[in-house]
Design a protein that fits this description.
Elements: H1 3-15, H2 18-25, H3 29-43, E1 48-51, E2 54-57, H4 59-87, E3 92-97, H5 99-116, E4 121-126, H6 129-137, E5 143-148, E6 155-164, E7 166-170, E8 181-182, E9 190-194, H7 199-211, E10 216-221, H8 224-232, E11 238-240, H9 242-245, E12 251-257, E13 261-269, H10 276-292, E14 297-299
Parallel strand pairs: 3-4, 3-5, 8-12, 9-10
Antiparallel strand pairs: 1-2, 5-13, 6-13, 6-14, 7-11, 7-12
Length: 300
């Protein structure tokens, strides 16, 4: 499938207009229409329907575009890399990270790395744990950082830290007076959970099922940062990565029993050796994660 078809699809998705898409791509309106028509013929379903003077995506079209965006991002990255090599620009380091790590330590790690390597420019994507593996498998990134296990083709994972999950409670919560929070302590407390698809939620649900502890679910969110924000607002308690929880105002952090741990790892493409810059940035991440939560982090 030609990249031009996907570029036409993206332009129409973003503008809602064949005319505007043509201006963006330096094509005529009939040329854009032919690209879309040919793409629809190859796919076997309609991508758009008319909504007044604009085009609106069909359900199938939106689903296809959501998947195609990753491919387009890869082609965009390839074009940019080629431009940089051709113009002899300074080095780029491309990383993709899970939200916990991106929000918790990435800014500090990138700043520290930049002090030693001021000529290196960094491009960072923030994606879900599953997407980190998928994006790394596209071979367009130098370094991935996410919770393990992740098993995808053409990607090598290397564990670098074991992180102990903590209980995050609103400041002033009665349980915050305790030095350790147990599963039994919070059986009746309002609970802010991550969505069921998350790895940490899976671990917590498994623990509660084995110990017959029915947590009192008050809210769900797909983001660990959002969960801690809800805790700070007094919605309930949550079980969190300490890299997020310890940086959140209005949140009391306590050890959680029984102990739960997440293993974090670096992901590297297998088609080529990691660059020295990627290895050095990985080393900085290890140092920052240790300093961020020394009581909960064990480095490998």
């Amino acid at each position: 499938m030609r990249v031009r078809y996907l570029q036409a699809l993206r332009a129409v998705m973003e503008t809602g207009s064949v005319t505007e898409a043509g201006r963006r791509l330096f094509l005529t309106q009939p040329q854009v229409s032919r690209l879309l028509s040919t793409l629809e013929d190859e796919l076997g379903f309609k991508l758009f329907f008319r909504a007044g003077r604009r085009l609106a995506p069909t359900r199938e079209g939106l689903q296809f575009y959501n998947e195609a965006k990753r491919i387009l991002a890869g082609f965009d990255e390839v074009s940019r890399i080629a431009d940089d090599i051709r113009m002899q620009k300074d080095a780029w380091l491309r990383i993709v990270a899970q939200p916990y790590l991106a929000h918790g330590i990435a800014a500090t790690a990138i700043a520290e790395f930049g002090k030693e390597h001021p000529i290196v420019r960094i491009s960072m994507e923030i994606r879900s744990r599953a997407d980190v593996g998928l994006w790394m498998s596209g071979q367009q990134f130098d370094l991935g950082i996410a919770a393990l296990p992740i098993e995808v083709p053409a990607v090598r994972s290397t564990p670098f830290a074991s992180v102990r999950v903590v209980a995050a409670l609103p400041l002033g919560h009665p349980l915050a007076e305790r030095s350790v929070i147990s599963a039994e302590d919070v059986s009746d407390a309002p609970y802010v959970a991550l969505k069921p698809a998350s790895l940490l939620r899976h671990y917590i649900d498994d623990l509660c099922a084995r110990r017959n502890i029915p947590l009192k679910l008050r809210a769900e969110t797909s983001s660990g940062l959002s969960a801690c924000q809800l805790v700070a607002a007094g919605v309930g308690f949550t079980l969190a990565d300490p890299l997020i929880a310890r940086g959140m105002e209005g949140v009391a952090v306590r050890p959680w029993e029984p102990e739960l741990r997440l293993t974090y790892g670096f992901l590297f493409p297998t088609s080529y050796a990691p660059s020295s810059y990627a290895q050095q940035l990985a080393a900085v991440f290890k140092t920052v994660i240790r300093d961020k939560a020394p009581d909960e982090v064990e480095l490998f």
